[in-house]
Write a structure and sequence with these properties.
Order of helices and strands: EEHHHHEEH
Number of strands: 4
Helix content: 25-40%
Largest sheet: 2 strands, antiparallel
Strand order of the largest sheet: 1-2
Low-confidence stretches: none
Shape: globular
Number of domains: 1
Strand content: 5-15%
Radius of gyration: 16 Å
Length: 127
Amino acid sequence: MCRVKWCNKEDRFYKNGNPKSLCSVHIQYKEICQNAVALEREYLMYKVEQWVNGKHQCERCGYDPVKTYPNEEVKAQSGTLDVDHIKAENKHIFEHETPKNYQLLCKNCHSIKGHNKGDNIRKDYQK
């Protein structure tokens, strides 16, 4: 079974005869995500799922890095999009770390959302 908690796929990816604990979709994280520790940041698996399904646009403004930078590598293209927690207060709460609380945002939209919601201020400095 895939180790991504919301994935129910039973298919396992085999590399050199060794079974991996990710399905054939999520095993692609190294080709898509810039962050090599995506397994520790499960929300990045949302980006992998979206990318594999051809949904690589900002969910707010529609920016598409594949159209803007067609000659760049996938990692460079995907690096222009962030996975945003829709409800930031639920970040790092196990039961809320699911695709329902995620959206892909371009760097600009993510920055503006964070500014408007106060997400860009450290919690110990928030009123």
